[in-house]
Amino acid sequence: MTCDAALAQLLDMGIPRGRARAALKRSKGDVMSAAERVFAGEFDEISSDDEGQDDMQPVPGALKDQNFVGLQTAEQMSSTSTICNTDAKRTRPSSSVIDDEHEIIASDSETDEGDNYDQGFEEEDVVMSSDKQGVDPYAGIFFSKNRLEKIITPLKKEYYALVALPANRSKKSGPSTNGWVRILDKGEWMSGCPEGNEQSLLFQLYSVLEEGRIACPSGCGHSFLRRKQNFFVLFPDLSMYLAHLSANLRSTCPNCQIRICLACGERTGKWPSERGSAPGRGTPHSLEENSRQDHWPQDDVLLHCPNIQGVILGVGLRMIELAFAGEGEKGQNTAVALESHAGSDDRDDDTEDYYDQHPDIHNDAVGSFMSHRKGKGVGYAGTVSEDRSGQIRAERAQKEADDKTSTLLSQVSVYLPHLNREGGARVSDHLVHPTALAHVRRRSAFVNDLLRNDSLMDMSKRGNLYRVLFNWLEAVASHEALASMLAMPQMRPIRTEPAPHDSHFVMITYEGSSSPRELLENCVIQAQAALKGLESDVDPEDVDEVTEEDLRLTNAQLNQKKGRDSEACKENQNIVLKQFCLRIISTAETIDGSLVETKGKPFERARDASTNEAASNIYEDWAGRARFQYCDMSIGSENSSNIAYKHAFNGVIQKMVGMDLPKRSLAIAKELAILTTSLPVAWHSTIFLRVDIARVDVLKAMIIGPEGTPYENGCFIFDIFLPADYNISCPQVKAMTTNGGQYRYNPNLYADGKVCLSLLGTWGGPGWISGQSTLLQVLVSIQSLILCEEPYLNEPAYANESGSTNSKAYSANVRRMVLADAMANNIKCPPFPFENEIRTHFRLKAEDVRKQITRWKALDDGQAIKTDDHSPHSGTQMSKPSKGTPFDQAAEAVRQMLNKLERQEGIRQDASGQEETKNPGQGIEGPKSKE
């Protein structure tokens, strides 16, 4: 190849002229090596406009010496067949470069090692050694949902070639029936938002398979012809493409009679049917051939090497993209036009511009559209019956589109790498071609579009498509090289505009969006809610599978079909929905397991944090508004001079009625002003405060147990009274969450309600400082110092026993008490005045609490609850239940309460975040106070 032609190829790839010249010089004129070096960032220090050239301008006629046998268009391929990704027009973070550890292209010094994916490279080949199989190929790439990328790409232009059609799919008889088929050109092959050195890899594979001639590996002197229409063609359906590929993939050398794979250039042996006529010749070369039967199925031929894997996934996923985007019908009408060339094998030379040769296709399509009859309309003079023909046509079109997409997806999924493939894993299952990874990552927008469906019923009605989609997701998740893609934010095109300086190109802006796993979580939430609402307990394995057609039938039609009454039909539909919901949850669990195995525990924590972000924001927004409020704590009485209060310090409160203490009132007013905005609010722990509307010295607090402690998510109520000499002296505080005076939750929280804290003067240490200490300090001290990770250590005598058996046993006992009382009892009979806050807290954190119970189960020691003594080996021990451990009983009670809260229809959350009761007689309704 001449120097000018090599430079033109690099310019067509969007590489600035200065970098292209430097790369060619260092690579000694090797285009592939030069492209690899540029995309790897080796020449980033060279300015993109160092020569004052318009780097995006293609060079006309640059590829004249390329072999385009059987493919002709009105213009040279050089103007439209490559994608431009200029560094000058693209902003990438410094972290978005694959480091040496994860590099999947060999350098000059590595060319003698590894397995070559692409034949035809003399100096630099694509390699992936076996010790790299467990490495995430995108580990060094920066992914973010807030990321924007601008990519320069050529305008789409369709190219056609005349190829031999599969005989069994032709509309005309004869083995040599030919037809015009659209080519997937290099620009379309490389389209999408690139990462790392993907563009170089895609360019290499395409160039290798279109380069023209490949020498026979035996050295006999014969060369085989390779053409792009053998590999990169877009038939109306994938089965035609696979048949075409099978027919053109292998070729026999006329000199030495060996058969080779045109995709990789390796010797594959003779066809089994030919072995009998030529004994001893054409012995299979690969390990796969040793176990070959008397025939080679089509799938077996197409699983031979990583190169063909990359081709099939690239073409197949592109076909799915077109079908999902609604271009499938157009493709069926225009992609293939049959031409009879019976007895002619000279199809390579019979290619011309397709539109010039067949202008009637466009005219026929327009004429067909214009010939449609106009609708009569519905009005005063029209028919009074409802015209549902449009809806019926839309439903039929949707079903046809779904069927086509699901068929394509099922067919393409066969060629995803499967380590547990039936018949044994192939080479491409272990050594996945990097272009296969690139295509799966780039061309999965349809997956996200389907997962964005916010209607579980619609997903269930389109169950066939979604079941195939779940199969696809599980297949991707099952392979370590692909699994991480399910957690990557996907780059979606959001805007297309003309490229600057060149009308033949456009600039596409890509934006990071939610990952498939993140979108699947919304489906999981819907499925879990639906399962809770289903009353049927029928085991899905005990019933016959109900088809999608059955779901579309009315109850009457189902009765006629199956001879059941309407109630049985309703039960059948519930079973189908239940099966569908279980499948959604199962798919999510499969993906999660693979992601944890591939990416590790840190990734799991990051994923959970991302998934919980929305719920956390909702919770904190609600808690921020609900943390400080006034309420009436008085108990009505006929004698207005004798007002009682729902409060532990009622007697003291009544004695101070009518007292005028201005300094105290001023101190309280200042503190309350601070508390309105200073109370801690977080997903992990929040403090709620209620102040009597008439007596601001009468308060109640509820502290949510902090995350990571035995008190996590429990609701702990405290009654607070500000005495007459406040704030010279400390407030009076009593714990009210004691299960009726039975549970001692902490060495500093007694069963009688006493709170031991130095600020309260009930424990040694820094005490209350007049005029400086505040009620907020008291509340935060209880939250952080008493409700702590190892409560056993709060007893001075045991302060040095961190992590001891006694400490673990004490924490396990606290967790059982929290489940039984601070959770279950509080949900069942929420204490005044925190009824709404307790219900809302557990409703918003229901799923988090369920996960917490699972974690706690692994830490439980199976003992009964010990109630009123600090020692883990003494105190009153409640009798063990007859069924299950005490922990299991308490956990089940909490789960049941959470389920009731989620199913409860009487209570809803209004726009302000407060709850309203439609019907006070419904749902969980206990006494307003436990006092």
TrEMBL record:
Where do the segments described as Disordered lie? 272-293, 860-931
Which residue intervals are annotated with compositional bias (Polar residues) in the record? 873-882
The answer to whether keyword Transferase applies is yes
Q: Which SMART domains match?
A: UBA, UBCc
Q: Domain UBA spans what residues?
A: 1-41
Q: Where is the UBC core domain?
A: 663-823
Query: What is the protein named?
Result: UBC core domain-containing protein
